[in-house]
Design brief:
The chain has 85 residues and is mainly alpha-helical. It has one domain. The chain is elongated, with a radius of gyration of 16 Å.
């Protein structure tokens, strides 16, 4: 039984890894004015999809600390935008 569970966990981890790669590729393919999408926009999209910062970091190949800082900046921008209204 433990062997089965172990195998299932490995399969799930591998699927998660592959899905992360697919998401990363799709983000880079999204049409944008000018050049490719910057990191902040990628983080915003993944966050809006409900993906955890740890997973965003893994998908984008950055540290969790870096992603957390990006998210803090995005929240700050949102607050400033709402204050202007």
């Amino acid at each position: 039984m433990d062997n089965e569970k172990n195998t299932e966990n490995k399969v799930v981890l591998e699927l998660n890894k592959r899905l992360g790669v697919v998401i990363s590729i799709l983000l880079r393919m999204l049409p944008r004015e000018g050049s490719s999408m910057n990191l902040k926009e990628q983080v915003r999209i993944l966050d809006n999809l409900g993906i955890r910062p740890r997973d965003i970091a893994e998908i984008l190949g950055r540290t969790q600390t870096h992603i957390t800082k990006e998210l803090a900046g995005l929240r700050k921008e949102k607050v400033q935008k709402n204050e202007k209204k």
